């Protein structure tokens, strides 16, 4: 089954919104409720914009990084996700897809970047990783990286975007994630 594109979904929303907003606009005009008719008219224009494919909105959405898992044969495994860590200002949280975990035989490197405005990298050589374990906070699941590096925050939690791919990718390089 093929997944509909964002443009198709926006067109469908526009097609659903157009008759409803058009009806409201007409009713408000007939009732001489000009300010409400103005708002409904803006909804009509927005529906037409969506039906035309919302090119500006799609361009903005396309700027966001994509959620991916990638295995480079014998080199590394990379997965997009989110990140939560301790800092001097408290707990910092970046949602999916602003973080990347890259595992190789030598190390796990976690990078967080926010639209080019902020970038931070945490590198964990294999010898410094004590344990990787699953950690659930509310509705989200992540991998807690327990390590002994003084140069990195003591609490590093990588939010998982694809649990199966992460387990398989880490196993290929000799890492195991425990449930406790």
Structure write-up:
There is one protein chain. This protein has 180 residues and is of the alpha+beta class. The chain folds into 2 domains: 6-62; 69-178, Pleckstrin-homology domain (PH domain)/Phosphotyrosine-binding domain (PTB) (PH-domain like), CATH 2.30.29.30. The protein is 33% helix and 38% strand. The chain has 4 helices and 9 strands. The protein has helices at residues 6-30, 34-51, 55-62, 163-171; strands spanning 69-72, 76-87, 90-103, 107-114, 118-125, 129-137, 140-147, 156-159, 177-178. Strands 1, 2, 3, 4, 5, 6, 7, 8 and 9 form a 9-stranded mixed β-sheet that branches. Strand 2 and strand 3 form a beta hairpin. Helix 1 (6-30) packs antiparallel against helix 2. The chain is elongated and about 75 Å long. The model has no long low-confidence stretch (mean pLDDT 85).
């Amino acid at each position: 089954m093929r997944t509909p594109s964002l443009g198709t979904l926006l067109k469908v929303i526009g097609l659903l919104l157009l008759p409803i907003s058009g009806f409201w606009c007409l009713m408000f005009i007939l009732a001489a409720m000009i300010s409400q008719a103005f708002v409904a008219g803006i909804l009509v224009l927005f529906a037409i914009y969506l039906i035309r494919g919302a090119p500006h909105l799609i361009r903005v959405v396309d700027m966001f990084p994509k959620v991916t898992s990638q295995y480079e044969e014998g080199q590394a495994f990379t997965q997009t996700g989110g990140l939560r860590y301790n800092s001097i200002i408290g707990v910092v949280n970046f949602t999916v897809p602003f973080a990347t975990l890259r595992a190789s035989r030598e190390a796990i490197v976690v990078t967080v970047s926010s639209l080019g405005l902020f970038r931070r990298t945490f590198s964990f050589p294999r010898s410094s990783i004590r344990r990787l374990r699953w950690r659930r906070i509310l509705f989200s699941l992540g991998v807690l990286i327990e390590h002994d590096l003084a140069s990195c925050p003591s609490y590093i939690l990588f939010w998982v975007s694809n649990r199966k791919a992460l387990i398989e990718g880490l196993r290929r390089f000799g890492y195991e994630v425990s449930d406790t």
